[in-house]
Queue: 2 jobs
Job 1
Amino acid sequence: MGKPLLDVKDLKIHFPQKKGVIKKKVTYVKAVDGISFTVNEGETLGLVGESGCGKSTTGRGITQLVPTTDGEVLYEGTDIASLSKSELRTQRKNMQMVFQDPYASLNPRLTVEDILAEPLKAHGVKDKKERRKRIEEMMDVVGLNRSFIRRYAHEFSGGQRQRIGIARALILNPKLIIADEPVAALDVSIQAQILNLLKDLQEDFGLTYLFISHDLSVVRHLCDRVAVMYLGRMAEIGNTDKIFENPLHPYTQTLLSAIPISNPRQKKERIILQGDVPSPVDPPKGCAFVGRCPKAHERCHDERPELQKMDEDHYVACHLYD
Amino acid sequence: MNTNEPKSYSPFREFLVKFLKQKMAVVALGVVVVILFVGIFGSFLAPYDPHRPVTSQYPEKGIDLDQLTNASVIVEGVMTDGSTIEGSEVTQLQAESENRRIASIRRSQRGINVNANTSGYTNATIESGDVSSSFQVVVEGESLLEGKEPVISRLIPSQPEGVLTPGDQFQLDVLAVLTDGEELTDQGDIHELALRLYETEEEEESSGFNAPASDAEAIEGLHFSSLNEEVATVSESGEVTVVGEGEGAIRIQTGPVSSVVQVQAGAAAEPVLAYLNVSESNVTLTDVYKHQPPSSIHFFGTDHQNRDIFSRVIHGTQDTLLIGFVSVAIGAFIGTALGLLAGFYGRWVDSLVTRMTDVLLAFPGILLAIAVIAFLGAGITNIILAVAVFTVPVFVRIVRGSTLALKEMTYVEASRSIGVRDPVIIMRHIFPGTLSVVLVYLTMRIGVAILIGAALSFLGLGGDITAPEWGSMLSAAKDNSSTVFHATFFPGLAIVLTVLSFNILGDGLRDALDPKLKE
Amino acid sequence: MTNVLDIKDLEVSFKSDGKEVKVVNGISFSIKAGETLGVVGESGCGKSVTSLSIMRLIPSPPGRISGGQIYFNGENLLDKKEREMRKIRGNDISMIFQEPMTSLNPVFTIGKQINEVLLLHYKMTHAEARKKSIEMLKLVGIPRAEQIYDSHPYQLSGGMRQRVMIAIGLACEPQLLIADEPTTALDVTIQAQILDLMRGLKEKTNTAIMFITHDLGVVAEMCDRVVVMYSGEIVEQADVDTLFNDPKHPYTVGLLGSLPKVDEKIDRLYSISGQVPVPGSVEKGCRFAGRCDHVMPHCTQEDPPLFKMKDGHDARCWLYDPVHGRKEEAKDGQTTLGREGS
């Protein structure tokens, strides 16, 4: 694996919530509460977790679509969080997003050409012919028929729309793609097409992916490394094979056991969790998972576990392994 | 790829298909188009001049005019030296009708205008200083009136010839012209006629203009009085005696009619006004053209001033549409801009704009408009501003609302993640999204604006109340609405039809532009 | 075992732009008492429309059941009057929807919403209904059932709401429970809870379940038998073991192949090319022909019938036709299919 491209250090994203008529009480939703990870050049890091764990917010925080509260987002050594507005705009060229909902992420009033021209216009490609040429090339790359260039986004099916979304992200030749659940809204057969496309594009353009997903099978398939998040914190991070074959954190273990296996002959022991994810406004003082953890002990209630190295490229935040 | 490709999509075609499915809206669109056409070409379409009574336009149109509702009487001043001056040169010319319910009299450029009001007789007097003449006005309504005895129209005195010296004596000769044109030369006849004519009236009425005569002698017929006793005296029979040097004058009066004879002893003097000549001493008018019912000549009939309502309604379309369109255009433009900014940037911009909007929305629309008019003064421009002021918050609110929703759309976030500038995002992704709702509201608000504009005119806040504007037409016609149906009905119908059409069109647009409404 | 539900040649049409399009085109299947039937397919395949037509809840217009019969305990539901259907809904057949956030009325308490079903179908006093409701809440594994009984939906999480929906669905002890993507909107750990719950309840109540989903993993875990739908038709049906281990229809094979596996690393997923055809766009021949890797000339000529593989295993594919299929495909067809499937 290459050198680090993106380095997230102790990232915190808190959303203030004003309560009371006279706004006297301000509580914070700790959507992301101090996470650190590195994405190396050319690799795919999967960011997994259940809804509300802060994985999408992390993605938006990295691209500065939501303001970060604390911590650093280092892209090739520059802290994105501290950039000025215009510097950030230039920087965004290198870091593009693919969104979950291919229906909501494309403006239905624009044609494919308009949508794909937007990033080019924003980054100073003024010549209309050149734009057209690049758009057509990009449509070939993502497998869209060139004749669709004048079609409106809403005329396409979900899979084709996601191809447009990917084309929009790739047209500026970014190094890093942050894909926020890009296949969650797609049917199985289309999902496979898009996953294969993402793999091909990575090989052809040497892309680095931060792949945000709740679907562990997809993550297993696509990612080199996996980061498991729970309630705004990092539970476990490391090499995909190591985590899937030897999950250490009790949460990762539950998560993996909960995946339905598409083979009726293979029956496996399932850990059924009790209760729901606690509110991120008032997370537990110690380990975030303490309320639902089958192996919780006293220390877990009081002390927040830090990530500790268990193996080469395998870290876990759990007191069981102290 | 699938070969079964649908026909190339056009958002406009889809809109059109959806719109055409709504029969009512299509009809409303047709009506709106007609209204717009009328608004633009109204001045060419109107058969009559909406500002003038139709009767005065009949000759131009070649319509036979045998009766009149108004007449202009040319007034001429005759000076003591026999020369004449035009009515406009006569100083302090006053005209008065004895019975204003029957006919009203106004000064005009060359004389006076007589307007028939109701059938009946009246005498009218014109006066300038000591001189006055009178004429008779007969207004015939649906029932013709029998002729009334003529009255004295004017007294023409003979002026003394040459230069007079104190001690001279001469007899005044008076010619009385009656309203039927008959001339009486004998002083005794005039006296008798005057006695008969004014005897009863003076007891009944105490009008100001014949007060001097009644003071002197109540039942006197023909009365002579000297205006300067130091120069000349006059006897009851009209014998003038010059007693001193200077300018003197004798006033000859009978009833409301008076003339002046200049008595000049010594040096020559400027001639003064001797009497007033009127071009017509017996004005016969009719009131049947007022409030004419709808007919083939006047589709919507005529109003209380005998103006063609059809022409006025057509002319009024322009003002009405001007109020509707311009005010809503101003309001929508400002409102949309503020709404976009407030919705997109939030924070203090939003707080400020929202607070202002709330304040404006707290007042009922018409009240706010009246307040603005009260501040700016009446007039059509101010009506437009007033309506615009209360249109702004409506648009701020709806545009802000849809901006807030659109701002959260992933494609807006996607644009931001690409590095697109805020103004570009607003113009490319947010504004087009609000456009459909703006368009719908625009159409509907035009209806409301027209209604409020008409209401303001109705209340007399539109400035010129005689202007052909639907609201002021209603306002003017409302007093007779219990007896006259068409004068209020047609302007009212025009308002209803216009407002309804714009509202139905707006409804249709909304349904056609609503992406959720597929079928 | 008797069939609780028997659907024969069901056809459902929707009108759009003046044209009537068949979205469900002659499907037949049956569910036995106590059995869980999985109905699998991608969006637009007609699986939800099928479930709504069983409940006679197709929005009409534009929709219309244009043919076939739906026998529930031997009686054709399509002949029933609306009044009779109301008695059946919620009582004999009940339904759980995908969206736990919107299927509950936010204005009423949980208790009220369970009571409503009970009071509608049973002669019960309010006190009895309350007792039964709390019993149901306990049955679906809701802790502090008495407290939840008086809560409003917004106070509950998605998983809890779905439990409440299941409690409502099972309150009248229906013979058939139609679950339309009941876990799609939920997280994996919550999904595991709900699936676990439904499995347990099925054993307790012997309710037949029609489980509609697009998730093959869930089907493998939950169902006894599976119906695979594509573009308004059943393309394959078999018991769950046969379907996952010996799929016959190229679509089923492709679907299974395109699933990423959590327990093994494959470099490249098999993917079915192209898109699901728009309903009504395929005029003749097999609806899958345009995307099929094994397409033969005959496939575009005639719509294939369901071919019997073995007992209870049917596939709608010309490959298995003794006349058209074997000759061309004997060489490589079977083997290729088999390899992709595993």
Note: Chain C has two domains: 3-228, 247-341.
Job 2
Amino acid sequence: MKLRHKFLAANIYLNLAIALKSLGSFKLRTFLAITGVVLGTLSLITVANTSRSMELKTSTDLEVFGKNLLSVKSGLTRAHATPSDLAESVRLTLADARAIKDSLAQAATVAPAATKTFPIRYMATTVTGTMLMGVPMEFFKLKKFTAGQGRLFTEQDAMAKVAIVGAKAAEKLFKTEDPIGKTIYISQQITAPASNTTAGETYISQAACEVIEVLEPMSVDLAGINEDNIVYVPLGTFMKRLTNTTSINLIYVEAVSEEAAGRLKADIEILLRQRHNIKKGERDDFTVTDLKDINSMQTKTMKIVVTLGMITSCISFTISSIGILSIMILMVNERKVEIGIRRAAGAKKRDIALQFLTEASFISLIGAAVGLLAGITLSVGISAAAALPFAVSPYGVAIAFAASIATGIASGIYPSIKAMEIQPVNILRS
Amino acid sequence: MDAQITEISQLLELRDIRKQFIAGDVTVEALRGVSLTINKGAFTAIMGASGSGKTTLMNIIGCLDTPTSGTYLLNGRDISGMTDDELSVIRNATVGFVFQSFFLLHYATVLENVLLPTLYTDSQLKHKKTHTAKVKAMEILKTVGLSERALFKPRQLSGGQQQRAAIARALINDPALIICDEPTGSLDTKTAAEIMSIFTELNKMGTTIIIVTHDSNIAAYADTTIAIKDGLIDAPR
């Protein structure tokens, strides 16, 4: 029995060796047919791996953010708002934050925050795309940020000229220098009013802040903010020294427990509607987000991507099966004599059919192997670019291989039947 | 006792074999009642002009085709009513073919070509396979004088060498019968003589050989000649 297996393996090997050589005479067609399978596998694997990465990211996020964290943003989220809605939105205030803290028992920690983009300068380097965020000391505890070499804000820092920089912002400003202890300048360009003698000229007001800490690289947070490209200053400093406003645009709220988070979300909505005098039937001028919302949004996006990927790979597999079908028909026609001589040498009809099915599947499998490698490479790239953890989806790999073998077999059936019908007596005429 | 010996020495027997082909409205009778016996170890030539029915007769003897009526016994087994699969098994184990155009797979090596019939041999019926098949193939290539060319492609060989490779392929499964269809038709006289001497050698070692030809010089190598004319056996010479 064991010998039989060895023998069968040797047979398949020899048959494939012969098949490969005959494929060599249709190089371009074989290449095109294989390309279809490669693309089909590529899109399948990439989509499967990326969605697996997203899943991993979401579950890591849940741990990092904490399942009981909520964010309140002024205005509606872009998905629901028109530009005028956003412009007219009543800003959140520190009083709103205080009200949440004081009147809602489920709110354990409340951290109001304000954001604005200012040009920030260190020595000769000025960075413009970096966001400045005013935060209270509670913010870091709530976000589970910990101090590294420097320190985080304390009570004494409420109005102090100190700053904490995110990893990407630090890289942009300081390159390879150690930022801690250095002074950065937060500048506001002000255009002189028309009445002034220096009308139209701009002058710059600058606030000097000492960098006291650099944060570890993170990613996009609950409120959709890229935490790495931020410079944090104390909220008091931000509101009094830099913007001179009373409005804020973000409130982070931590619920006392995971179970309380859902109720707290509803309570915050009721409270803020009251405080903002929003009548029944009118839309909120703020948005409360919890992780469930983020997850469902990500899931929706991912579903679209997965569906598109699946459609792409279906089309690719269909095209490649037509390609394989055409080369297999050519191969059968070109190899009529071979079929005749194999039949004369004792091949049964099913041996011939099996041979061509194996060849078709083999073409497809080569494509699948190439597509698998390319897909994994591409998903490594995507994960790196999108700051996602890299993952290989075993389902994706299994489906891709099943689909490619199925493609091979499906496109090999008709040529195999044609091959079976060839009668040696009609072929082997001298 | 006498009958038993006859039974054993007889390799094949055709009794009133007829073969009809239907082409449109016309029925062509290629064989019109052929009866013949060939013994083990015989060297027989089947001669006839083209259209005489000799190729049809060869196809039936070689189990590539079945007769419309009549009985064909090969090694004592009735072939006439066998299925396509059963005929394939018989061809694989019992018959080796050599054709005028060699019919080697040009993208495979000589060795792979020789091994081709072993792909369809049940390992449980035959002795230990795989690498021993390769060893055996090399031995056969040596006897036909091609061991140096085992890893060559057929196109790298001369016509005579290609036909030797085809003969090696026909021999790999130790067939009881070798059927050659105009084996020297594509070769020059000198090479043809070399090929025929291989057949003579094989016959001396006990292989039954049937050679189908229209060339009386080639038929002269055989011990017996059967002439076919209009689907019937002409008077034996």
Note: Chain A touches chain B through 33 residues (CB under 8 Å).
